[in-house]
Design a protein that fits this description.
CATH topology of the domain at 178-416: Transferase(Phosphotransferase), domain 1
CATH class of the domain at 178-416: Mainly Alpha
Strand content: 5-15%
Largest sheet: 6 strands, antiparallel
Helix content: 55-70%
Radius of gyration: 35 Å
Distance between the termini: 65 Å
Structural class: mainly alpha
Shape: globular
Number of helices: 42
């Protein structure tokens, strides 16, 4: 007897319940089972058994789009790659927490990163299969491209890779929510509320389509709604690029299961035809049908591939209003059976009046919209997801929809519904008699214009879609050399498309213009500026020919070309183009249009560094226009440019205000500036630090790190942001904190490619922070393998001087003066004639001169440097505390004791008055030590003693107590004071500490 034969009599009811259960996530099924009541409760144990069996054989779809999978070889009972995992196990950089889903092809775990780089929980998808050898390369490529899908309604693909045991994994954003259909039932949402949720989904899918990514498996279980009513679309990170490749028929049956969800698959998916955006439009239509009507348009039997194709080709889709159920659409509890009928599930039979009300709402426009999205032929559907969404928005606004005929009566009815007024029936009749004819004529005219625009837009969309599918089909297996075709890179496909635009779209200028704009932007994203310039020139030519030389399209093309030229250091040509664009707008007295906004933005961006005052004027004008418009993206861009220009102009208050507003805008609209938020926080921190608001600056810098960690798993960018925070703390004398902040980036640098500039930068700051903290030997060990130290050929990146000068400083503090001098001389010779020495080189030279007994020369050098900046040789009380403290130290070593005392007191007073002592502890320690030493050398030991004790305390707080030579110097000065006060025992105890520190520092160290 088969498993199902014993349930034959109850099978229709069990089947309906089983369908409902299978639409839930595995973690939700248990609660669903326990919630069954009434006659359905009798089937609970049967369903539990069937679901347990299903969990052993069902096939997940989450690996459908990755490289071809190969079943593990060996007997059926051979352990599969991820079998036996337990909470706490590691997969790549992730630690497993708890299993949250399981299927025949794999498991899904709640996991967290365990490499220390960032703290984030993810949904980790683990296949129970062995993969082909090209997996790592393909996953890296798709991860980088799919990582660009930054949208508030798309759950991100954070990471994909292969662990040390060769096991593949995918790390997705973990979303806490219900499937969209279950959410609608649970919250008894109205039809309008459900349409609003569907529009969120369509916005996400449309965003992905604009990035040439197709989902291929839209269904309710992949669309979660969070408790706050926000949609999150899952599994976009494993969708394929829009590359037009065939889904072979064998994919339907390989691995003993199907890797697509048949009830939502498009006809072309079933047939194995090339897939494009219309396939997602169809699947979205099925989802919308189910969400609005409470049932799917049809259920497919699980038969052979030929049978499936026959069913989907022949199946007639009933109007949603003919099967809509109150249980499904307005929240009355119920479950839809295979035919769309509704069975009670604990709350009784759906109310008949509610069912009739639902049918009325679906009848007409919504029926037409759904029917249009579910056409069998891709060319008969909505050409884009945006077109589908636009019709739903028209329905929401009471406007005519494109899916309905443009009859006069239909449009008149829409007009009346949109403009209902509380007037009497007689007034309405009078209005109809008097104005009916004119309204009808006006509406007919508007309808004609709208139809023409819609037809033109549809034709352009079809041309763009056909062109893109033709370009990306070159990457499929349908070529003479399939292996070579599959190896085609994204850059090669982009080049191929750019080369074909003019030839293949010669007679479609609107489509050509749109594609030139899109592909130019993609070249900019890839950093291929010369190719971007080429396409922007072509765009300008087409815009002038098609729309006219003075049109908005031509002006916008001029602005885009100017921006590209500015990036390519062709400033003069960019300036000329922007002046021409400005003159065209001035001639028609256009000062507030969106086109004027783009020109003002271009002018501001072009001048923000070279002429920041001019750039600020342009940016202020752009800001006034942007505030009146609807584009938050434009407003964000203007604020960013204005902040940059103000920062370059040292207008720090204006910079802070602009950056702060930009940050608030990003925080209020997460998808808007996800890629810029950390940078905006960083620049906000710079402006706050310049305004002496150190605590606020630290908060901003730390939020920048948090934003970058939360945004994605790009380890390079995260390491950069962590290093910026460490630099801020290092400059604020917080050396131990700087090393803590830098620790994740330092760990990352141990595995990063040796030739990566960011790796070198991280290690340079690690060495500097170690040296400042007092671990000088460790600092030398960190920089010992730098290309500049090893004198290896390498690209110029501006770090050579810093690395070598840092080493000179470290060697000087260890007393290795000859080695330090060699490095300083090397830097002096490398400096171009006439160029003043860098700040760091000058500091290192002064330290070396003092250590070499040339303190007066060092002091003269500082004074000359200040004179060159046209400031007094001696720092004033209003100048940076760092300069005051160093000048006092040089005066002390030059023997000018009273001057040193006065300048040290000045520095200490400035620290107190400016209220930032927590960020000036190093300067406070230096100035206190100098003041104590100056008094001691003036034979004022009694006055010097408390100051030097305080200096030692400050040094112990700041520096490594076992290794810091700066601490040793402070202790030695205190020992001399104790001896002057005849406290010989205390002096000897202190000198023993000095000897221990210096002995420990002489020992070389090896880094892990």
């Amino acid at each position: 007897m088969t498993m199902l034969s014993k349930f034959e009599g109850d099978w229709p009811a069990i089947s309906a319940l089983l369908d409902e259960a299978l639409n839930l996530s595995p973690t939700s099924r248990k609660a669903w089972l326990e919630g069954l009541i009434g006659e359905h409760a009798a089937h609970r144990e049967t369903l539990r058994m069937l679901l347990a069996h299903q969990a052993e054989v069902e096939t997940d779809d989450f690996l459908d789009t990755l490289p071809r999978l190969f079943p593990a070889e060996g007997p059926a009972d051979t352990p599969l790659p991820f079998d036996g995992l337990l909470p706490g196990s590691s997969v790549g950089a992730y630690r497993l927490i708890t299993e949250i889903g399981r299927g025949g092809m794999g498991t899904v775990w709640l996991a967290e990163r365990a490499d220390g780089l960032m703290n984030r929980r993810v949904a980790l998808k683990l296949p129970r299969i062995v993969w082909g050898g090209s997996l790592a390369e393909r996953m890296d490529r798709e991860r980088e491209i799919l990582g660009t899908l930054e949208h508030e309604h798309i759950a991100r693909l954070y990471d994909a890779g292969v662990d040390a045991q060769g096991r593949p994994f995918l790390a997705m954003e973990h979303v806490d929510g219900l499937p969209i259909d279950a959410y609608c039932r649970a919250h008894a949402l109205s039809v309008r509320e459900r349409v609003a949720l569907l529009l969120q989904v369509m916005a996400a899918v449309g965003h992905a389509h604009s990035r040439l990514v197709v989902h291929r498996d839209l269904k309710p279980s992949n669309i979660l709604v969070t408790p706050d009513g926000s949609v999150k679309l899952l599994d976009f990170g494993i969708a394929k690029l829009l590359e037009g490749d065939s889904t072979e028929r064998t994919a339907l049956t390989e691995l003993s299961g199907r890797a697509l969800t048949l009830d939502y698959a498009s006809p072309e998916q079933i047939r194995g035809d090339p897939l494009g955006t219309p396939s997602d439009v169809y699947s979205m239509g099925v989802v919308a049908y189910e969400v609005l009507a409470g049932a799917r348009p049809y259920r497919l039997k699980r038969g052979s591939a030929a049978e499936l194709e026959e069913v989907i080709a022949a199946a007639e889709i009933p109007l949603a209003s003919s099967i809509g159920s109150a249980a499904g659409a307005i929240g009355v509890t119920g479950s839809s059976g295979p035919s769309g009928t509704t069975g009670a599930s604990g709350a009784g039979t759906p109310d008949a009046s509610a069912d009739r009300a639902l049918r009325r709402q679906l009848r007409g426009d919504l029926d037409a919209i759904l029917n249009h999205a579910l056409k069998k032929s891709p060319t008969d559907r909505y050409p884009t997801m945006e077109a589908f969404a636009q019709d739903l928005r028209r329905w929401m606004d009471g406007e005519p929809v494109q899916a309905r005929p443009d009859g006069l009566a239909y449009r008149m009815a829409k007009l009346v519904r949109r403009h209902r007024l509380p007037v009497t029936a007689g007034a309405i009749a009078t209005l109809a008699l008097i104005g009916g004819a004119s309204v009808a004529l006006w509406q007919a005219h508007q309808a004609g214009l709208q139809t023409q625009r819609a037809q033109a837009e549809a034709a352009t969309a079809r041309a763009v879609q056909g062109f893109l599918e033709g370009v990306f089909r070159a990457n499929t297996a349908d070529q003479a050399d399939p292996a070579k075709a599959r190896d085609t890179t994204a850059r090669e496909l982009l080049d191929r498309g750019a080369d074909r635009i003019n030839a293949e779209l010669k007679d479609a200028p609107a489509a050509r213009l749109r594609l030139l704009t899109v592909l130019a932007s993609m070249y900019q994203d890839l950093g291929l500026n010369e190719r971007e310039v080429d396409l922007q020139r072509q765009r300008l030519t087409v815009a002038r020919e098609w729309h006219g030389p003075t049109s908005d399209e031509a002006v916008l093309a001029m602005t885009a070309l100017a921006n590209a030229l500015a990036l390519n250091t062709k400033r003069d040509e960019a300036t000329a183009l922007l002046k021409e664009a400005t003159a065209l707008l001035d001639a028609r007295q256009d000062s507030t249009s969106p086109t004027r906004l783009q020109v003002e933005i271009g002018q501001a961006s072009l001048n923000r560094r070279a002429e920041p005052v001019l750039a600020m004027a342009f940016a202020e004008r752009a800001l006034a226009i942007a505030r009146r418009g609807d584009s938050k993206a434009d407003l964000l861009l203007v604020l960013h440019i204005l902040g940059d220009a103000a920062l370059y102009d040292r207008s720090f208050e204006r910079a802070q205000a602009a950056y702060a507003e930009a940050v608030q805008l990003c925080e209020a609209n997460p998808p808007l500036g996800a890629g810029e938020l950390s940078l905006l926080y960083e620049f906000l921190g710079h402006s706050q630090r310049a305004l002496n608001r150190y605590a606020e600056a630290e908060t901003s810098m730390r939020k920048g790190v948090e934003a970058e960690v939360a945004r994605n798993a790009n380890a390079v960018r995260v390491a950069e942001t962590q290093t910026h925070l460490a630099i801020f703390l290092n400059l604020g004398g917080r050396f131990r904190d700087a090393l803590t902040a830098l620790a994740p980036a330092w760990r990352w640098s141990g595995t990063a490619p040796a030739d990566l500039p960011q790796r070198r930068w991280v290690r340079m700051w690690q060495a500097r922070a170690l040296a400042n903290y007092g671990q000088t030997q460790a600092a030398l060990a960190v920089s010992s393998d730098d290309v500049a130290v090893l004198d290896k050929p390498h690209p110029v990146d501006g770090m050579d001087e810093q690395v070598l000068t840092d080493r000179a400083l470290a060697l000087t503090s260890l007393g290795r003066l000859a080695e330090a001098q060699t490095l300083l001389e090397r830097q002096r010779q490398a400096t171009p004639a006439g160029k003043p020495p860098g700040r760091l080189y000058s500091l290192a030279l002064r330290r070396w001169q003092v250590a070499s007994g040339q303190a007066r020369e060092a002091l003269a050098g500082l004074q000359a440097q200040r004179a060159a900046r046209k400031v007094p040789p001696a720092p004033a009380a209003s100048e940076p505390v760092t300069e005051q403290a160093e000048s006092a130290w040089l005066e002390l070593n030059a023997g000018h004791l009273e001057v040193a005392e006065a300048q040290a007191r000045q520095a200490l007073a400035a620290i107190v008055s400016r209220g930032n002592a927590d960020y000036q502890r190093d300067n406070q320690a230096i100035a206190t030590l100098v003041l104590g030493q100056a008094l001691l050398r003036q034979r004022k030991a009694e006055a010097a003693a408390p100051l030097l004790r305080d200096a030692v305390r400050l040094h112990r707080q700041l520096y490594d107590p076992a290794l810091s030579l700066a601490l040793a110097d402070a202790i030695e000065a205190l020992a001399q004071t104790e001896r002057a006060l005849r406290n010989d025992a205390e002096a000897n105890r202190l000198l023993e500490q000095v000897r221990a520190i210096r002995a420990a520092q002489r020992k070389p160290v090896e880094l892990p």
